[in-house]
Amino acid sequence: MPLHRIFKRLLSDLSNASSLIVTSSTHRLLVGTVLLVGALALSASACSGEREQSQTGALGQGDPWMLAQPDPYAEWLPILATQDLAVGVKRIAFSLDGLAEDEEPPTVRVSLFELDQDRQTPRSIQFARFIPYDPDVKIAAHGHANASVSDRSLPIGRGVYVVPVRLTSAGLWGLLLEMSSNRANESVRLRFSVRNRQAAPGVGERAPSVDSLTRDDVPDLAELTSDPDPEPGLYAMSISDALTLGRPTIIAFATPAFCHSRTCAPVLDAVKEVWREFSAETTGIHVEVFENPDDPSQLVEAEAFVAWRLPSEPWVFVVDAGGVIRYAFEGAVTETELRSAVEWVVQDGAE
User: Fold this and answer.
1) 203 lies in a domain?
2) pTM value > 0.90
3) 114 SS3 class
4) For the chain, what is the largest distance between any 2 Cα atoms, rounded to a whole number of angstroms?
5) Are 297 and 142 in contact (CB under 8 A)?
6) Would 201 be classed as within a structural domain?
7) Is residue 8 scored above 70 in pLDDT?
8) Is 96 found in the same domain as 53?
9) Which residues contact 191 (CB under 8 A, 6 or more apart)?
10) CATH code at 224?
11) Are residues 98 and 7 in the same domain?
């Protein structure tokens, strides 16, 4: 194949990649390499008399969002943890693969770009907050009855970084992560797609009314939850019954023993603490992701989890007295964040 056609195919492959990252330490090398190949290709094209149009425009402008190549020598590799991204306000979470056990987590400055509109000017710039994993949280050995299960998160890193963003349109967006510590300074770009509507129920929508299992349906709470220290009050009422009471409801979907992201257990602990504080004003419900947590060899997703169309776990929803979702947290959420959300919903209903 002529060299100029190899160059065109290379550019095409780079342009059509669906999920791309590039680190600053490889950017200059990659750009230089591709430009050199481009120059040789154009020269060969001229010598042969062919006049095919060159695709060097974007690369000639040094567009860093086009190139995708993980740096094998990078200290940290960011992994996007949030899966359900749609138009609206969202907490984006990511972890850093390569963060040592005894290492102080680096500070991460996050710049948000709407790539379909402007690849140079960020929509927002802020610092992400680090939420560490509880080192005592473990993942129990388990299997699944089928392949379409909520088993999609990997236990990468020592915790997750979270940052709130406003996604104003569907399309291609990007994050520039600038990481800094005493050990290294690096930057990485992440590209991701935003849909018009998320898969899970969103803020402003009515909470789906489903008959989730309660403690009255089983002889032992071990058949209802994988939480080793369950709060009985979170299993007293089904979602469908709670939504008829005319009071705020905290609904958590989590599987503490089988959660690959290692965030379910601490999230459920936060739910238990906040619900105990507001139990006089709210109803609290925990829905185990699997309907048979007492049989870890053949786990089956719970009907309520499937009915809510949740693509991952954990999720926590704060629903107002009218049955409308006011807050939706995917993944890690702290006790402080959840308490603030519940306070707002309770106070709003009391006015």
Assistant:
1) no
2) no
3) strand
4) 83
5) yes
6) no
7) no
8) no
9) 19, 20, 21, 65, 115, 172, 173, 174
10) 3.40.30.10
11) no
Q: What percent of the chain has pLDDT over 70?
A: 77
In angstroms, the CA 130 to CA 179 distance is 12
Cross-strand partners of 175: 112, 190
Assess whether 244 and 145 both reside in one domain: no
Q: Are residues 172 and 219 in the same domain?
A: no
- Per-residue confidence (pLDDT) for residue 21, from 0 to 100: 40
Boundary (domain end) residue, out of 144, 165, 194: 194
What's the Rg (C-alpha) of the chain?
Answer: 24
Q: Strand 283-288 relative to strand 249-254: parallel, antiparallel, unpaired? A: parallel
Q: What is the pLDDT of residue 228?
A: 92
Contact 328, 203 (CB under 8 A): yes
| Structure tokens belonging to residue 245 | 């009471």
The per-residue pLDDT for range 30-63, each reduced to its tens digit, is 334 434 434 434 344 444 343 333 333 333 356 7
Q: Estimate the crossing angle of helix 24-48 against helix 3-16, to 10 degrees.
A: 140
The DSSP bridge partners found for residue 223 are: none
Report whether the peptide linkage leading into residue 314 is cis, meaning its omega lies within 30 degrees of zero.
yes
Pair 234, 307 in one domain: yes
CB-based contact 204:325 (threshold 8 Å) = yes
339 shares a domain with 221? yes
The answer to the question of residue 138 being in a domain is: yes
Q: What is the pLDDT of residues 156-175, one digit of tens each?
A: 567 889 999 999 999 999 99
Residue 268 makes CB contacts below 8 A (sequence gap 6+) with 227, 252, 254, 256, 286, 314
Residue for token digits 């005894």? Answer: 102
Give the domain-ending residue among 145, 165, 194.
194
**Domain residues for 310?**
215-350
Instruction: Using DSSP bridges, classify how beta strands 88-97 and 159-167 pair: parallel, antiparallel or unpaired.
Output: antiparallel
Residues 190-224 pLDDT 10s: 999 999 999 999 999 999 999 999 999 999 999 99
CA separation for the pair 252, 208 (Å, rounded): 13
| Number of domains composing the chain | 3
Q: Are residues 219 and 339 in the same domain?
A: yes
